[in-house]
């Protein structure tokens, strides 16, 4: 066993035959001879472990938990598969990466029960993974995108445009053997706030607060992060798995969200489909992205998650 200590520890674990890079956050006074409740953390699209995991990891460790944040396959410090491209963040693989993260935590002798905490797209990944992974004993989602059909398919013309672009990108990459990168969230790494807001993108100001070049965790501020992404992403991100299997989830579930956020329906529609009597916490004062970084929002969500996991 490597020499682990309280705070952040760099680790790797196998998934799809390659080493995924992770940060394992351990609580103050960590003692490898004791056992702890552990959390696998799943992050928003298109984040790397220096963003949400680097915010939520220390907070959950401060509350006595072990927290594993990691870079999904082809993201950040984790390699792509041989012959494939970086930033190919495909939902089906994200789920399997999460299963493997759970397996890794299960090898640690100081880990007791394993829980899951997903933020934004991470909520969808986690909920999907938990359907058939009962090693995950409880799940919590924050600003989760679990029920994304209404959000993503509300305007079929826009959805079809995204699909057409993704299809063309996939064909181009197959024929050329080269990566085709785009700006799927419309924001690029050089835009000012004014330029991005002027595009009329929903949640533009909120999004820029985190992902913009002047945002709290944008390009240049977080290692290996860029808003650029692989061009065929929409072919998988438009397939929302969690909401269609919500009634199969048996683990105790906590859903934290902002009812005034544009993404609220992704939580409320999921809650409506759950059959496991979920706990729900709605914070009127916080937006979708507030839960990523604003100290008061992060404290509210991590306090709630800690209380839920400690029950």
From TrEMBL:
Gene3D superfamilies: 1.10.10.800, alpha/beta hydrolase
Coiled-coil parts of chain: none
Keyword Hydrolase found: yes
Keywords: Hydrolase
GO MF annotations in UniProt: hydrolase activity
Domain of life from the UniProt record: Bacteria
Stated name of the protein: Alpha/beta hydrolase
């Amino acid at each position: 066993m490597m020499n682990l200590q309280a705070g952040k520890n760099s680790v790797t674990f196998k998934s799809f035959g390659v080493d995924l890079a992770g940060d394992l956050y351990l609580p103050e006074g960590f003692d490898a001879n004791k056992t702890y409740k552990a959390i696998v953390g799943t992050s928003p699209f298109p984040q790397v472990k220096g963003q949400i995991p680097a915010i939520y990891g220390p907070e959950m460790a401060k509350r006595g938990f072990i927290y594993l944040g990691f870079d999904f396959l082809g993201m950040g410090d984790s390699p792509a598969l041989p012959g494939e491209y970086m930033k190919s963040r495909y939902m089906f693989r994200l789920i399997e990466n999460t299963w493997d993260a759970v397996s890794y935590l299960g090898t640690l002798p100081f880990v007791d029960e394993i829980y899951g905490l997903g933020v934004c797209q991470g909520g969808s990944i986690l909920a999907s993974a938990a359907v058939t992974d009962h090693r995950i004993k409880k799940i919590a989602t924050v600003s989760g995108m679990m029920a994304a059909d209404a959000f993503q398919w509300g305007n079929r013309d826009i959805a079809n445009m995204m699909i057409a672009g993704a299809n063309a990108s996939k064909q181009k990459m197959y024929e050329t053997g080269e990566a085709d990168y785009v700006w799927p969230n419309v924001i690029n790494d050089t835009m000012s706030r004014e330029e991005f807001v002027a595009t009329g993108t929903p949640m533009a100001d909120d999004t820029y607060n985190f992902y913009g070049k002047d945002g709290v965790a944008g390009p240049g501020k977080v290692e290996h992060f860029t808003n650029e992404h692989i061009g065929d992403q929409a072919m998988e991100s438009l397939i929302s798995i969690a909401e269609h299997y919500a009634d199969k989830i048996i683990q105790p579930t906590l859903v934290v969200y902002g009812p005034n956020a544009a993404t609220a329906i992704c939580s409320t529609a999921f809650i409506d489909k759950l059959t496991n009597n979920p706990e729900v916490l709605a914070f009127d004062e916080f937006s979708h992205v507030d839960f990523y970084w604003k100290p008061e929002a992060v404290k509210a969500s991590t306090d709630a998650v800690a209380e839920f996991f400690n029950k």
